[in-house]
Amino acid sequence: KLTPEDLHAIAAQLYVEMLKAGFTSVGEFHYLHHQPDGQPYSDRALTSRYLIAAAKETGIGITHLPVLYAYSGFGGQAPIDSQKRFINNETQILDIISALMKDYKNDPQVTIGLAYHSLRAVTPSMLQQAIHPYAPIHIHIAEQMKEVEDCLAWSGKRPVEWLLNNVKVDAHWCLVHATQMTENETRELARSGAVVGLCPTTEANLGDGLFHLRDFIRENGRFGIGSDSHISVSVIEELRWLEYGQRLLHQARGITPSLYALALTGGAQALGRATGAIAVGKRADFIALDPNVPTLLYKQDDAIIDAMVFAGNVNPIRHVIAGGQHVVKDFRHVAEEKIFAEYERIINKIFGA
């Protein structure tokens, strides 16, 4: 029964937590488009506008990704009742994207892209027709073995294999999860130039498995990290889980040199944003660590990042600048109390307190 106003309050609280955790940009994979009864709002982009407003309120950069979600399973299976707020066809989703692109074209903190929920939620013709040149494109894919098995039953191909064979996947694409891949799929995906969006805490929470990161990087594959289900909202925890999972998988240490830098570069590419480096023409996105955190004492150069990711359980991120705005000061967001009060009010309303 969430209203657009409810979505704004919940998203703003999340974005505050993300900023405090060191995320300066969010890729909002958004498919709650319609009213609770499934009927569209008079402005089909209404819920998108409320989420973008939440990002503007908090200061986080946003790549907003309206999601094309049309079916409940491979082969165009009819959607079920609980999916009625998600459902659009390719024309409707492109209309939402075009309206948002027009309205936010001059806002450097807002990027508009496109997402397909998954191969099971769209048809092959939709993948060909619902496309927007040069915009970031995201898709959930090959997260769990059931999806792989269902895709094999439908097409005779595995999900990543099918996508690479049937769609022009390039550097504008981000394949989210891609956990269940063969060696050949891993190699060919890396060579496509696409980014893989890895969400290690969610993938662990759901028992998805471990991504073949070492092989992917050896083929010059690119990756970014995200929080997905928000079972945890922490740059540090996502990176730590990612590396430790690889060490356990391969029974070796130091699997991913330059882990943090690689995630920055891949994340910026996936979101279509000029971030990820301190350079002319890039957005002014910075974090400043507290030098008095015990695990950071006497650390220099790369050892600072290593200690931030792998040592201790205290968040060392003291200040955050996003898009040139100082949004986290001394560990607190500048609008934290106001945003939490509204979030608390909405949660009390939802649960009847």
Characteristic terms for this protein:
alpha/beta, TIM Barrel, 41% helix, globular
In short, what is this structure?
41% of the residues lie in helices and 16% in strands.
Query: Any low-confidence stretches, pLDDT <50, length ≥5?
Result: none
At CATH's second level, what is the architecture of the largest domain? Alpha-Beta Barrel
Broad CATH class of the largest domain: Alpha Beta
Task: State the helicity in percent bands.
Answer: 40-55%
Write structural notes for this entry.
The chain is an alpha/beta fold and 353 residues long. The chain has two domains: 1-135 and 323-352, TIM Barrel (Alpha-Beta Barrel), CATH 3.20.20; 138-285, TIM Barrel. Helices cover 41% and strands 16% of the residues. It contains 13 helices and twelve strands. It has helices at 4-20, 46-58, 90-104, 124-129, 145-155, 159-166, 183-192, 200-205, 213-218, 235-250, 259-271, 302-310, 336-351, and strands spanning 25-30, 61-68, 110-112, 114-116, 137-141, 173-177, 195-198, 222-225, 286-289, 317-322, 325-329, 332-333. Strands 1, 2, 3, 4, 5, 6, 7 and 8 form an eight-stranded parallel sheet that branches. A four-stranded antiparallel sheet has the order 9-10-11-12, covered by helices on one side. Strand 1 (25-30), helix 2 (46-58) and strand 2 form a beta-alpha-beta unit. Helix 1 packs parallel to helix 2 (46-58). The longest helix has 17 residues, at 4-20. It starts with a helix and ends with a helix. The model has no long low-confidence stretch (mean pLDDT 97).
